[in-house]
Amino acid sequence: MAKKFSKDKKPSVINTILENKKRIENFDNSNFKVSLQDFDSSQKCGSSCRDWQKCGLLSKMFETLSGYCCRPLLEQVDGVKFTIYGNFPPKERTKFKYPEHVPEDANWARIHIEGVAVIAGHVLENTFYIVFLDKYHSFYMTKKKAKIK
Question: Where are any strands of DSSP class E within the chain?
């Protein structure tokens, strides 16, 4: 019987590392791809494409993504511009809610676009599924921004 995933239960650090390693080892070497299949602009802390277009971020996003699409996804994860988190951020570190249409075992990640603006989503093999346009970096906030001691 399959183990049910709970968003409230905190996984052990060791299990999280082992699961992320297993997910990453299963990636192929084809070039990075982008999908909008899971895009969600309904959350109040997220942005719409129109909003990003008005402030010039939409074109910056496409320029950034076109650079990523020339090589395999894993070659480009650097922990600075492109980070794979694994699990969805804990409630105290995000202003977003887990979208119902995204698989519970999604491997969450983010890519910096410009300034604090990021795109947040999940990765599967060499595809980055864009879920949120996050103009203020509220997807996975730093401890200082989230006011965590």
Answer: 33-35, 82-86, 107-114, 117-124, 127-134
Rounded to whole angstroms, how far apart are CA atoms 82 and 57? 17
Question: In angstroms, rounded to a whole number, what is the distance separating the alpha carbons of residues 121 and 110?
Answer: 6
- The Cβ of residue 99 has, within 10 Å, a number of other Cβ atoms equal to 16
Nearest partner of 65 among 48, 42, 82, 78, judged by Cα: 82
pLDDT in tens, 39-68: 999 999 999 999 999 999 999 999 999 999
Give the residues across from 120 on adjacent strands.
110, 132
- CA atoms of 126 and 24, how far apart (whole Å): 10
- pTM, two decimal places: 0.79
pLDDT digits (tens, 9 = 90+) for 74-106: 889 999 999 999 999 999 999 999 999 999 999
| Distance from C-alpha of 39 to C-alpha of 114, rounded to nearest angstrom | 20
Q: In what order do the strands lie in the sheet with 127-134?
A: 33-35, 127-134, 117-124, 107-114, 82-86
